[in-house]
Design brief:
Elements (H helix, E strand, L loop, with lengths): L2 E8 L7 E9 L3 E11 L2 E5 L2 E3 L1 E3 L6 E3 L28 E3 L6 H21 L22
Antiparallel strand pairs: 1-2, 2-3, 3-4, 5-8, 6-7
The structure holds zinc ion (ZN).
Zinc ion binds next to loops.
Length: 145
C-alpha cells in the first residue's frame, strides 16, 4: 500500500493538543478521513479516526457514554468503571474506525502524515496561505496511547 495523498487542515486553537485533521489517500483509490495530529510530550503523533464507545442502561435500554454516572434517558444510577480496560489498565473510551494492523504500516502512516503536517505548517506562515477546505469532525481528542 502506498499513501498517495495527504490533506492537512490545521487547527489554530493554540491551547489545544489537537493540531490538525488529515485525510489520506491509499493507492489513489481509497480515502480515510478524520485522522488527527496531536502534540504529545514526545513530539507529534498521529491518531486514527475513532468513535466514542457507549453502552445501554440495564433498566431502560437508553444509550449512554461510558463515563456517564446516570442514564441520560431514565436517570438510573449506572455502575462505575463500565469501560473495558486496556493492557495498561486505562479505560477504553474510544474505538478505532480504521487503523493499521502492523507496526510497519503504522510507521508509514505516522511518517507521511507528520511530514505533510510540518509542510502545511510551513506553508501556513506565508501571507497568501489558503487553508485546506475540510469538514471537521465534532469529537474529543483521544487519550494518548
Ligand atoms: Zn435508563
Amino acid at each position: 500500500m502506498e499513501i498517495t495523498e495527504v490533506r492537512v487542515k490545521l487547527i489554530t486553537n493554540k491551547d489545544d493538543r489537537l493540531k490538525a485533521f488529515c485525510s489520506i489517500t491509499m493507492d489513489n483509490e481509497f480515502v480515510v478521513r478524520d485522522i488527527k495530529v496531536i502534540e504529545g510530550t514526545n513530539g507529534y503523533f498521529v491518531a486514527m479516526p475513532s468513535r466514542k464507545m457507549s453502552d445501554h442502561c440495564e433498566k431502560c435500554g437508553g444509550k449512554n457514554h461510558l463515563r456517564a454516572k446516570f442514564c441520560n434517558n431514565c436517570g438510573t444510577q449506572l455502575a462505575d468503571n463500565r469501560a473495558r480496560k486496556d493492557a495498561q489498565g486505562r479505560m477504553k473510551l474510544h474505538a478505532d474506525i480504521a487503523h493499521p494492523i502492523n507496526a510497519e504500516c503504522r510507521k508509514k502512516i505516522q511518517e507521511k502524515v507528520t511530514a505533510a503536517f510540518k509542510e502545511e505548517l510551513e506553508r501556513s506562515k506565508q501571507p497568501d496561505y489558503k487553508p485546506v477546505e475540510m469538514d471537521e469532525p465534532d469529537d474529543e481528542v483521544p487519550e494518548i496511547v
